[in-house]
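Final report, closing paragraph on structural work. Over the funding period we assembled a curated collection of sequence-structure pairs, and we close with a single example.
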Amino acid sequence: MDTGEKFVTCDEMKQIERAADQAGLSYYQMMENAGEGAFRHITSDVRTLQKTWIVFCGSGNNGGDGYVIARKAAQEGIKVLVVPVGQPKTEDAITNCRKLMERDYPAAVEFLTLDEMPESWRIVIVDAIFGTGFHGHPEGMALDAIHWINDRRGVSTICAIDVPSGLPGDEQDDRNYPNAIYADQTIVFHAPKPVHCNDGVDIRRHLGDVTVCDIGINDVLK
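Its predicted structure, as stored:
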């Protein structure tokens, strides 16, 4: 990504989403579009179709995006392991978690805890733990999940949804975040946030290749 590209802050993104919802694109549909778009981007590398996917889903809407991605993968015959990092709390995340649990798919979907995870390495890992609005420091289950994912860096394909978990979306300085995901690619929804346009060496190591994914907002806010 061109680091000179215009960004929107996390608060501005919330306002944009609210305007889109009022214009007729529901929050639920935005989540569906986000999950579909992220899935299509990941599978643009056909090698990902041949591997097991492990999707880490946080309790917020970023986790909801992860549940959609897991559903899309299972529908396409990809074996999916889902690791809930906390129980879903938002309405749309709860709905998409239930949809994933209650339906049969061409491929197996298993819900596992981190302690039950197989020692897999050559896999596709989807990081949908924290979104762009994250602040503070990862703790507990989230921190354990981030370490588990980073231990597979360089062997597995790590895909961060909206932002590598542990990085704040509005970060514009080049700071060290040792407890954040090191992603091979970051899939951003609608528009870059400040962190995605950060040209700091340490921050870029977390982001990997950054791609912006359209989720339908531009069409309703013309």
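The chain has a mean pLDDT of 94. The chain has one domain: 10-184+193-220. We thank the funder for supporting this effort.
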